[in-house]
From TrEMBL:
<feature type="domain" description="Recombinase-like">
    <location>
        <begin position="3"/>
        <end position="73"/>
    </location>
</feature>
<feature type="compositionally biased region" description="Basic and acidic residues">
    <location>
        <begin position="1"/>
        <end position="11"/>
    </location>
</feature>
<protein>
    <submittedName>
        <fullName>Recombinase-like helix-turn-helix domain-containing protein</fullName>
    </submittedName>
</protein>
<dbReference type="InterPro" id="IPR046789">
    <property type="entry name" value="HTH_62"/>
</dbReference>
<dbReference type="Pfam" id="PF20552">
    <property type="entry name" value="HTH_62"/>
</dbReference>
<feature type="region of interest" description="Disordered">
    <location>
        <begin position="1"/>
        <end position="20"/>
    </location>
</feature>
Length: 73
């Protein structure tokens, strides 16, 4: 079966994700799979699942936005 040479799901990746980034991504994917699509619900899901910020504190909408800006840079 030929591969699609134009499909690269990691085309914007400049490095391998850290274990923290992998865990955070998995938690976000689980939230989306559960039908959570708003920021308040996502933050609540992360806290309920004991997924903390890199510094170990609970998520807020403000620190989530800040962390996504850092990770997206």
């Amino acid at each position: 079966m030929p591969t699609d040479r134009y499909l690269d799901p990691h085309q914007a990746r400049t490095r391998t994700p850290t274990p923290y980034e992998d865990l955070l991504g998995d938690a976000i994917e689980r939230a989306f799979a559960a039908g959570i699509h708003d920021l308040a619900g996502l933050v609540e899901h992360l806290n309920r699942s004991h997924t903390t910020t890199p510094s170990g504190v609970a998520w807020t909408e403000e620190n989530y936005r800040a962390e996504m800006a850092v990770l997206g840079a």
